[in-house]
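This part of the workshop introduces the protein records we will be handling. A record pairs a protein's sequence with a compact description of its fold. Comparing a sequence with its tokens is the quickest way to learn the format. The record below serves as our worked example for the rest of this section:
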Amino acid sequence: MYVACKVRENLTSYEDRDWHAPPKGTTARRATQSGLDEDGMLVA
């Protein structure tokens, strides 16, 4: 189990309690073979 919290500057009310878009580059994605090769990762 985990808990996700939204932390934002200048929050003045609780009106916006819905999901938000995460900052670019902060979400996981499936690794590509070229990306694994660039990082020197070997997949057995």
Q: What stands out?
A: The chain has a mean pLDDT of 81. Residues 33-38 form the longest helix (6 residues). The two ends are 30 Å apart (CA to CA).
